[in-house]
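Protocol check, entry for the methods section draft. Step 1: assemble the input record (protein sequence plus ligand SMILES). Step 2: submit for complex structure prediction. Step 3: store the C-alpha cells unaltered in the notebook. Ligand used here: zinc ion. Step 1 record:
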Amino acid sequence: MPDQSSEFPFRLRQEYLSPSEAAFYHVLLELVKGSFVICPKVALVDLFFVSRPNENVHQSTKLVRRNVDFLLLWKENLKPAMAIELDYLKQSDHRPIDHFLDGLFASAGFPLIHVTVQPPYDTKELAKRMRSALNKKQDTAPRQADFSPICPRCGITMVLRFDKDGPFNGQKYYGCLNFPTCQETVAVG
Ligand SMILES: [Zn+2]
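Step 3, stored output:
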C-alpha cells in the first residue's frame, strides 16, 4: 500500500496517449514505413531554445509544459524533420486554439502541419501534405546572433547593458559580467 504522506507522491498514469492520439500514431506509423522515427508528445523545450536568453527571459516560460503531438525525426541522424499537431473538431473540448504554436514553428523555420482528428484518415492526402511541409523546411541552423557574445577576456556570457552617457552614446551594448574589473564591451550587432 503506497504511503500517501510520502515525499514521493507520484503514481504512474495508466494511459500515455489518448485514444485519438494512439489511433493517429498507428496511421502515421503505416505511412512513414520506417523512414522516420515517430515521437509522440514532445516537450517544446526539447525542440526549441530561446535565442539570446538573457534578453528574452520571459519568452522561455511560453515553452514550459507545452507539447507538440508528434515529432518526426529523420531515421539516419535522429534530427527533427517535421511536427504534426492534432486538432479536434470541437477544439474547445480539448484545449484553446493555439496561435502561439504556429508562430513558434514559423519563426523557427520548422514545418508543422495540423491534422483534424476525424478518422478514417485520408492517408494519400496526409502524405502529400507531409511531403510539401518537408520540402518547405528552411535552414534552421542557429546563427551567431542567436547567442549573446562571450567576453573575449573572461570567457563568460556578456549581458545587455544600456548606458546613457557611455561610449555607445545612449545605445544598448554588451558588457562583461565582471564589470568594473573587466571593461570589455561588444556592440549590439
Ligand atoms: Zn570580461
